[in-house]
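Design a sequence for this backbone.
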């Protein structure tokens, strides 16, 4: 009964918002708008400045399981007896953002641009958090930006803050160099701030400890783009430092991400990604912050955690105002900790949504999500969520 009442309220709100004058809808991202090309600016003889942002309000109804997250993270799905939980409804505006673009013309170095963006996902409710702050000078980018392991053009248009679990969606402090090979292809290299996430199991060994990382993450990608779509191959190499009997040791780690999209006519596209490696769990959106790069596996041994997975998405324009996205993702991790009943984790993710562009600056959306997992304890769980969105950009 409670579920029916909540769904009825959800439906009424969504329909009520829909009675707004409508303009044309482009195939640009609706849930996560791209950085704008500013035309209305504060101008001096050399500097152009634009301040903007977005207000994003999310309504979430969990039928079961995920009770405390604004992101549909499959690793947060309770398993076994804990999987049966009561429904939950919440509203939030933490995904709202503020941004600033600065363009500066120099005589010696030519045009220099800088970009700043933050949201309210910091520590504590509605605490401000830095997302981007970088400067572009000729072929170089310095500051905090998307990792070179990321493919921005291969991210499906979803309402959920995470999306498919093995999506590569990480920002890092970096110095990168980009070289245009020809009209359609480019290659880039970067050194990025190392952020190793290691899980220490004291029951197995108390002499292994975390320590400072003394080597940057090395990333590179090759990208080819045309009227047909695009393809990108990204590679990463890492050294994961740890202490064993007060001596610094290192595990070599690395992986790949192959992604792209294919345009299907003028109204649709297919997005694909496959990624995997060892010791790179923190580069996947659902694993970041969970200590899934490496783990104490036995006496005196720290083992990298192998992970692989991918997703497929289909986006299409239904008419000038409506757009829908269908997504399926799969992920798999393994470990050789002998004290655990199982040696693998796998999860499935699926979502479907509908966006309605009510105005050039206003979009509403509705999305359903489902996830199922099997954990290292040989227990399973699933979760179902309905999520709505109101997005206003300025």
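Sequence:
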């Amino acid at each position: 009964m409670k579920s029916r009442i909540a769904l009825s309220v959800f439906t009424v709100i969504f329909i009520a918002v829909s009675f707004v004058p409508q303009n044309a809808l482009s195939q640009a991202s609706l849930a996560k708008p791209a950085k704008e090309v500013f035309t209305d600016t504060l101008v001096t003889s050399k500097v152009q400045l634009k301040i903007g942002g977005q207000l994003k309000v999310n309504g979430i109804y969990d039928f079961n399981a995920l009770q405390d997250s604004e992101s549909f993270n499959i690793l947060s799905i309770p398993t076994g007896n804990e999987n049966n939980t009561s429904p939950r409804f919440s509203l939030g505006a933490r995904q709202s953002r503020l941004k600033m673009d600065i363009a500066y013309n120099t005589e010696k170095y030519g045009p220099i641009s800088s970009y700043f963006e933050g949201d309210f996902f910091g520590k504590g409710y509605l605490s401000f958090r830095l997302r981007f702050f970088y400067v572009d000078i000729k072929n170089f980018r310095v500051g905090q930006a998307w990792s070179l392991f990321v493919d921005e053009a291969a991210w499906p248009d979803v309402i959920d803050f995470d999306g498919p679990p093995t999506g590569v969606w990480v920002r890092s402090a970096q110095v990168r160099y980009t070289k245009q090979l020809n009209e359609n292809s480019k290659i880039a290299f970067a050194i990025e701030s190392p952020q190793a996430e290691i899980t220490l199991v004291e029951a197995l060994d108390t002499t292994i400890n975390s320590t400072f990382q003394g080597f940057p993450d090395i990333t590179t990608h090759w990208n080819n783009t045309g009227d047909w779509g695009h393809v990108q191959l990204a590679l990463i190499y890492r050294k994961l430092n740890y202490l064993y009997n007060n001596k610094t040791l290192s595990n070599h780690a690395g992986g790949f991400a192959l992604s792209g999209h294919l345009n299907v006519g003028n109204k649709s596209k297919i997005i694909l990604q496959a990624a995997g490696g060892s010791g790179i769990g923190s580069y996947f959106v659902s694993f970041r912050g969970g200590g899934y790069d490496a783990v104490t596996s036995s006496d005196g041994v720290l083992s990298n955690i192998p992970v692989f997975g991918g997703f497929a998405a289909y986006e299409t324009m239904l008419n000038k105002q409506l757009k829908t996205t269908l997504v399926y993702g799969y992920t798999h991790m393994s470990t050789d900790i002998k004290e655990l009943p199982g040696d693998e984790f796998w999860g499935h993710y699926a979502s479907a949504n509908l966006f309605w562009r009510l105005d050039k600056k206003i979009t509403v959306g509705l999305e359903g999500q489902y996830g199922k997992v099997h954990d290292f304890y040989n227990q399973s769980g699933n979760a179902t969520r309905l999520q709505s969105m109101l997005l206003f950009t300025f």
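The CA atoms of residues 261 and 271 lie 4 Å apart.
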